[in-house]
Design goal:
Layout lengths: L4 H25 L4 H6 L3 H24 L3 H25 L3 H6 L3 H21 L3
Length: 130
């Protein structure tokens, strides 16, 4: 059992670092400043970013659970990031004024964005189990 401890630590540290890196990349690309908005009490931004974090973590979890190679974690994590960026752009097309809606703290925008992000994360995670 303890023989796998080093592999567990390697996967966990890699997954956490990738999650942080991917969240940083995501917030750098989006047109609003999620962390500033969240610090100011913006619920819509919190919902939106929370959904993205979960949507990014799900594929990382799936790869970690079904792989023995850390490189798989990185490659499929990148696919998850690209998917989450695609979700953002799709939701931006579907919900005109997404940026303004998030910045104005319209919870419906944040919750819808979160729902799409988590849904795509679930689909990504499930697709990685085959």
């Amino acid at each position: 059992m303890l023989a796998n401890l080093s592999l567990y630590i390697a996967f966990l540290v890699t997954a956490v670092l990738l999650l942080g890196l991917f969240v940083a990349a995501y917030v750098a690309i989006t047109p609003y400043h999620e962390f500033s908005l969240i610090r100011a009490g913006n619920t819509a931004a919190a919902w939106s970013l929370g959904g993205v974090v979960i949507g990014l973590a799900l594929p990382l979890w799936s790869v970690a659970a079904h792989s023995i190679e850390i490189v798989d974690l990185f490659v499929w994590g990148l696919v998850g990031l690209v998917s989450q960026l695609a979700v953002f752009f799709l939701v931006s097309l579907l919900l005109k004024g997404l940026k303004a809606g998030i910045e104005a703290d319209r919870a419906s925008y944040g919750m819808t964005s979160a729902a799409f992000s988590v849904s795509v994360g679930i689909l990504n995670a499930g697709s990685l189990t085959t």
